[in-house]
Amino acid sequence: MAALLPRLPKRIRLTPSSPTHWICRTCQQRRAFTPSSTSPQTQQQPPRPNQDEARTTHFGYETISETLKASRVGAVFSSVASNYDTMNDLMSLGIHRIWKDNFVRGLNPGIQGERKEGQRILDIAGGTGDIAQRMLDHATLVNDDKRTHVTISDINPEMLAEGRKRFGNSPYKLAKRVDFLEANAEDLSAIESASIDLYTVAFGIRNFTHKDIALREAFRVLKPGGVFACLEFTPQLSNPVLNGIYKRWSFGAIPLIGQVVAGDRDSYQYLVESIERFPSQGEFRDMIREAGFLIPGRNGIDEEGGRMGMGKGWEDLSLGIAAIHKGVKPV
């Protein structure tokens, strides 16, 4: 009877220690088959990407990792430091000096009358010290204030070196009315909270990786009633015809001037592209407000009741090539 029954095939046993192999017809590679009973802890997991490396930002028109931007920007300003003021003259035909004079005059640094202490001013991305020089001159010569002090802060040591050359053995340095701080505007831990009367940044904030963080740091270090003031290029002129002419000049002439005068076309190409990537006047005004500041001039009237050309919350210069933004820390 048993002989009449069909013979059963022998069972094939698969064990985890002896995986079978098969050939992938698509990629023609030998692969191993592992039974599902293998513990998941023994399976190799793909590496997780570093979050800092995964975050990207812009460097001109180029998209790069956030961790690289500070060093890339630093390399640009290290390259242009010794020619920075000369290049600004050539790029703007000297108009940047008028803008800076207007910027400082509108802030009216210094305190009139008898006071034991003057203002404490923090000039961020102060580099060559030209804004600080104007601040101290105005405080001293216009307001007869010989106590106001300016701290020039910059992330780039080569730019700070140019500022130290500018002041040399000037009366301001001898009187200890100016000092220098190498620091990142996004981390001003060396500056006490609520210790600054006036925070200024001229043609520097567009290079910051996290502008919102820098604005919050500005808010932190300012005293209640203190003023944030920014002078910066704008990405677009309101007149489309003039905007086209301006863009042709910016992208055609400025990198060429950088190549001829400084032997560095790439750095000045970045400077032009960085302007294009900066927020519009309205967008940047809103960023200042979101950091906690009050925006003066929203109705075209400043806090003293006079016209100040800031009806939209900023003041355009030279048909909108540059603009002045201000914010006041609430009391």
UniProtKB/TrEMBL annotation:
Q: What is its EC number?
A: 2.1.1.201
* EC class (word): transferase
User: Is Transferase one of the keywords UniProt gives this record?
Assistant: yes
Key words, A-Z? Methyltransferase, Transferase
Name recorded for this polypeptide = 2-hexaprenyl-6-methoxy-1,4-benzoquinone methyltransferase
Q: What species is this protein from?
A: Vermiconidia calcicola
